[in-house]
Amino acid sequence: MVFGKLGSAISSVFTGKRRLDDDALEQLEELLITADIAPKDAMSIIEDFSSTRMDKDVSEDDIKSALKDILSPALSKCEVDFQLPDTDGPVVIMLAGVNGSGKTTTLAKLAHYFQSQGKSVMAAACDTFRTAATDQLKVWMNQLSIPMIEKEGADPASVAYQAYATAVEQKTDILLVDTAGRLQNNPNLMAELKKIHTTLGKQNPEAPHFTWLVLDGTNGQNALIQSDKFSEHVPIDGLIITKLDSSSKAGFLVTLSRQNNVKPVYFITSGEDLKSLNPFSSKNYLNQLID
Ligand SMILES: Nc1nc2c(ncn2[C@@H]2O[C@H](COP(=O)(O)OP(=O)(O)O)[C@@H](O)[C@H]2O)c(=O)[nH]1
Ligand SMILES: [Mg+2]
């Protein structure tokens, strides 16, 4: 079972009214864990339930709304009111994440998003790891008529360097930096990612203004490991959660939101369409999850 089906799973356990006893709590805890919520969080959610509702008759709606009440305060800390900083040069946004998480597709969506706000956008093809990666980005950028900086056979940091210089020259508003799919446990590739970051920082101490970690919403608890590992190499300002259109609804976000130093979720994506990029709303997320 995945988190998106949590609502229907709750409905099947709590058909009609049911007394909230140990057995019911245990079943609920089980549902939470199979929905990608870390066991320790599932346990604390259950403790919360048992302290307030033990031995009371509850309906599925009671359970769903109580669950929302419990999860909402932490998740709302992940919301962010994203504003472009007021700077002279280009605002640089770098995307990091493992292969297949959705970086390149999300970059295209972000490009479209900023373009529709009247901003000029440029892309840096810093995934030099596979030639096909540059081609994939090029198709998107051509479609959007957005200039893309690429350098065949070059190291990714030098592509970033040239892209930033070009963006300054052309007075581009926003530079979006695509990077290679990095297995978080590959030290060389992580070192390259860091080099892109520091190279940009030498050109402008504020750059990259944002480094977002792109997490695949279907990834389960593994996403938490990715978040920790990437943070060891580059400062991650926030997250983008992709593929929320799939049946999995990123239950790991519940766990992420309950940690210290919560990372804001800047955007979520939900489909192949360019328009399927939206700011994160904890309310919408919880409704999708639980109803
Ligand atoms: N359903 C769905 N698929 C997505 C979404 N974002 C990306 N993908 C797909 O995920 C796959 C990997 O995406 P890509 O951008 O190439 O990932 P990258 O390796 O991190 O650059 C592609 O097949 C994308 O079409 C999304 O929001 N929903
Ligand atoms: Mg890519």
Outline:
The chain has 291 residues and is an alpha/beta fold.
Report on this model:
It is built from eleven helices and ten strands. It has 291 residues and is an alpha/beta fold. The chain has an eight-stranded mixed beta sheet with strand order 5-4-6-3-7-8-9-10, sandwiched between helices. Helix 1 (6-13) runs antiparallel to helix 4, helix 2 packs antiparallel against helix 3 (39-53) and helix 7 (156-169) runs parallel beside helix 8. The mean pLDDT is 91. The chain binds guanosine-5'-diphosphate (GDP) and magnesium ion. Residues 97, 99-105, 181, 242-243, 245-246, 269-272, 276 line the site of guanosine-5'-diphosphate.
In DSSP terms (H or I, runs of 4 or more residues), the helix count works out at: 11
Work out the helicity level.
40-55%
**Count of strand segments:** 10
- Report the sheet with the most strands, covering strand number, pairing sense and barrel closure: 8 strands, mixed
Enumerate the spans where pLDDT stays under 50 for 5 or more consecutive residues.
none
Overall pLDDT metric? 91
Give the full name of the CATH homologous superfamily of the largest domain: P-loop containing nucleotide triphosphate hydrolases
Give the termini distance in whole angstroms: 15 Å
CATH architecture of the largest domain: 3-Layer(aba) Sandwich
What is Rg?
Answer: 21 Å
What CATH calls the topology of the largest domain is Rossmann fold
User: Which percent range describes the beta-strand content?
Assistant: 15-25%
